[in-house]
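Forwarding the complex inputs:
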Amino acid sequence: MGAPIVNELTLADFELENHVRGALKAAVQGDNDFYNQLLGVIHQKEYLSAEEVALLVTCLRAITGAVSSIDIVHHHALLAAVLRMSLWDYEVDVMDVLVEFIVSLASSSGDFVDLCLEMLVSNFMPLSTYYSEEYLKNPQGLYKKRQVLDRVHSTFQSIATVVPFSPVRLGIIVKDKMPSILQKEHLMSMYVENILMLESGVMGDIVGRTVLMALVDRLIELDVELTWDDILQDDFCKGIFDMDLEDLEGHIEFHNADSSELTREALFQNIFCGNNIVIAEKLDSLLVLTFEHLQSCYNSGRLSQVFETLILSFKKTILTAYKSKFAQFIMFYACSLDPENCGEFFANEVLNIFLRNENPEWRMSAVAYLSSYLSRAKFLSASFVATILESVVDWCFQYCKVHEGAIYPKNRSVFYAGCQAIMYVLCFRMKQMLVIPRFNSGRLLKRIEDILGHPLKPMQACLPSIVEEFVELTQKNGLFPSLETFQSRTDLENCRTFGGVQRLDMFFPFDPCLLRKSDRYIHPNYVYWSMVRNSYEDDEHEVIEEEVEVYDGFDEFACSLDKMSITPRPDNMLKMPSRIRPSTSPESL
Amino acid sequence: MEGSKECEANLVIYLHPSKANCVNDAIHGELTSVMFTYNETLEGVILAYDPVCCSKLARILPGVEPYFGVRLKAKFIVFNPTPDMLLEGKVVKVTRTAICAEVLGFAWASILDEDIREDFKHCIVKKKRGPEGNSKHAFASQTHKKHMIKFGNTIRFVVKSFDGEMLHITGSMLANNTGNSEWLDRHVGQWSQADRVSNKRIKEDAGDAKSENKNSSKRKRDQD
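Prediction (whole assembly, two chains):
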């Protein structure tokens, strides 16, 4: 008797199931008639009529019932056809029966678990070009996205109910199938959204760490792809403190010779040229998604738990990456959400790396992170900064004592990095430190003076701009009289030796974030040099206090500022309040 | 429950030089990392360990990173179900074609419909209270109405095969001593009697077949 014709059958469900079972067993023997008909039904994809959809649903349901007869080798074609189906290509009735099949298949044998999870993960993004970025933003596209992703994530949970270790496998699969940095921005963002949904879902305890670390790895990959415009950093004699975007008066002629208006947009375009803009925008979008996820973790009381993973990731990936540009701002933002726990924990961990790690480059990188963080984080209390600074000072002081008289002491670069860190933090926080009794006591100030006046000559090895600024501030405040005779002298040999080939002497990881969307999350808690510099002017003390209050409500300002275009006037640049910033909106030009 | 055994093994654990000042913690870390995974040497999934004694000396391996090998004895509890063993698991899913159960919290078992005895029929149990959508799949025995298998029950099943890498057990509920554990424990007499009856029937059939053969060979001899 020949095989029945699929779309002419009028059978009860269980009878069709029996037919399918028979077909699967027959296919093993070599009789593929009915089996091929099933394949034909499954392969139909585009512009299905109502009858074709009903047939597809019925066949899938029958195959679900016969899942125990499916063999991974003999029925490879059927498995491939079904697992290649994308939820995005069908309506909800087909979606529902497809996910039911996936759960039944995963439950039937261990051989199918990974295949089923991979199929679901591939549905994180639509493969069809029909789902363009514009379509996915409109209500219809959003609705479709919700339909698909809700089913995908609930299917993960259904499988995890039956297969206890499937979340572990899922974490590995999600990491392996992460789209490359060349993938389109909106698709990458969708994948990351799904990762973050997994992290905050019921399986987050098991799968969260793996997927978060994979996300940070991808952020660093994008970060490293950005080729930093070395114009700003080529000449180390130019002021490091002039690098803040708000004070880039001196550099306008570099970038916009014939433009009378400096905007962040124009600067962004100049620094990131060509392909870099695409990568920068991808990185920007992913950072924003991560910031929003951290915010929701904080709101649900999970930030401490997530922060442990971030710290691990920071030590493994961000710290060891060559001069990470923006990825480290996830740490900054997370710390700003919970300064007492996360903020202080981060500083202590980085301090620990500087004090105890074996690798000198990591130690130099760590102290660069520490000094930049302590200087720029508005949410850190002055007393805490003083405590951390004291630890760095004590280490440097001990170093000086131990290596008294040594000609080429070991870890000299680490020592210089520590000295530069002390001076850098004091440039930003001098005024605050001087009112803290612990700092202002004789012991600490004396130690700093001894360190900086040591025969190893750290002030000649560190960056001249930092040393000059530091000396100027100490003279104004009457500190360190023995350093008054110091003259700015660049010791090129020591500078280059200190920073090494990687120029870690010029690494200020928390310098202003150039990514415009991310920066909106960062700047409410960020210390700009202009804010600090103005505060050293006695006659502007009242103005500064006013600025600080306004800055707390900056977010509301930002929306209205987007519509303004303000040309900075060079003669008033120094006195321009830092809350008025160039417009970021191109429409305003 | 069958399937677990205790064993003792002599091990050498190779540790990174950075762990030299915290050897005990490092050993615990290494042993913990292999728990709940299938180990070919021990032929089973490691459920628990107890390091018994550890040598004070360790051999340093030559190489760029000089790992050092610590010798120790350790006891393990290993899970390795073999075919025909009787296991228990908690039902996590029932469909028309399969019963899925969780075993010891980390392994999973699936009993397909072809491995469920004909006495059990699939049914839909509707909840008396609550919304109409709250119906559940279940398997109910035709001979013993109270013997039912549904979500959350503990079942007893016979092992058909075990995939150590995926921690998956294929099970069977063809034998009379399989089914809902609670019912089986409360009605030992009924299923064991059924066993005795079916065994007796099998023996009688075997006996009949024997005597039939004897008679036919006697008749043949007589004829000869």
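Helices of chain B lie at 23-33, 181-186, 188-223.
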